[in-house]
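Bug report (template v2)

What were you trying to do?
Predict the complex of my protein with uric acid.

What happened?
Run completed; filing so the output is reviewed.

Input:
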Amino acid sequence: MAFVLGPNRYGKAETRLVHVTREGDTHGLRDLNVSVALSGDLSATHLTGDNSGVLPTDTMKNTVYAFAREHGVGEPEAFALRLGRHFVSTQPQVSSARVSIEAYGWERLGPHSFRRKGDFTRLCVVTVSEDFTQVVSGLKDFVLLNSTASEFHGFPRDRYTTLPEATDRILATAVDARWRHLSDTAAWGESFEKAKDALVNAFVNTYSYSLQQTLFSMGTRVLDSRPEIAEIRLALPNKHHYLVDLSPFDLENPGEVFIAGDRPYGLIEGTVTRDDVPPAPTEWYL
Ligand SMILES: O=c1[nH]c(=O)c2[nH]c(=O)[nH]c2[nH]1
């Protein structure tokens, strides 16, 4: 009896590419999850460890980022075709390339502000007791992105600090917000919509030096525009976007090609309260 190598393929899965096109102040955004799988005459590495035909999966990832810079992204089908043809035509041992792309949609909120398509979740928590009634409303998974107008610098550096100072970065977050109402009667639907609009407005229009500053701006905007709300708590994950170093391929990257980081992420949390309202009758958490 003998064992034979059956069908096989290999590649880099889930390269998270965010591509920003800049036409003056107006930016365009493509947000892709790109997976590449190559197959062909790959028996040598499986059978003997001979890697002479194994284009590294790391190279596939680099190719995704470099192609975004060199050719732009455009429609996902066109980008996938360009990549697939490249691998098959440049690697003799590769007879087939499968490129799958998930493209995440973003709605425009402003020249360089976007909201991820798809639904957020509206929330409420009501506590009724003999002595009081407390109404908390909110939302989560509400994903916002500014492709510029965000900086982060001036922070302390110790021997473990490697983060470069940023004078132009992407700021993106999935808003988790809860706000406590002053009373148990309100036009709930309208109150919710207007509070959400205030969050968006503050995010879009705050030139940000930290996500913390943006958080405070979002909180104050809600309280300023909604007298029925006593206080608001925000938890804002800092959805990091890392500028890809394309210099090994002799390419500049002037704020165009980013890795959308997954984990870990910064988590910025804070409460904004009116100083002239009674404290919450009972504890409430995010
Ligand atoms: O807006 C930010 N706040 C931070 O506290 C922080 N820390 C970090 O590494 N990047 C950022 N960005």
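What did the reviewer find?
The mean pLDDT is 97. The chain has five helices and twelve strands.
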